[in-house]
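We emphasize that the prediction below concerns an isolated chain of 159 residues; any contacts that depend on oligomerization or on bound cofactors are therefore not represented. The input was used exactly as deposited, without trimming of termini.
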Amino acid sequence: MSRPAPEIRLSTEEKEILLRWMRGCKTEQRMVERARVILLASSGLSGKEIALKMKTRAARISKWLRRFAQERMAVLKALDEPAPPGYSRWNGRLLAKHLGNVSKDQVWRVMRKHDLHLERRQSWCVSTDPEFSRKAADVIGSCRKICVWVTTRDKDGSD
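Result of the prediction step, given as a token string:
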């Protein structure tokens, strides 16, 4: 038998923050979803009703309601934090330092276990066109010709 979802009552400030996240055009989708879960719960909907409305699993809703009930906005704000100043992104060492009670090796073990890669980027620009190489060479060749033309034109001083 599942546990009942915790009752969520929001302060005015918490509600304003969550609504701002939901309306923000640059807010990550995961943050919007979590804000929506909490706002729906605060309006009196049960976890199962929220799950049906959002077309997701009730366990996922329960997890976020429980986390929010325990830590309030701190849990959501921590997930929304940018990398520390001077760094463009998180790495295992920074994450361990930020968490405070784990080693960098523990961070990397957990990340490997879940196949998470902080610094890996995947490319989606892979062409299946058999003529791609030839076409790309034509485009690059044209760009070079334009660059040469612009450079020689500037040297001549003509327009």
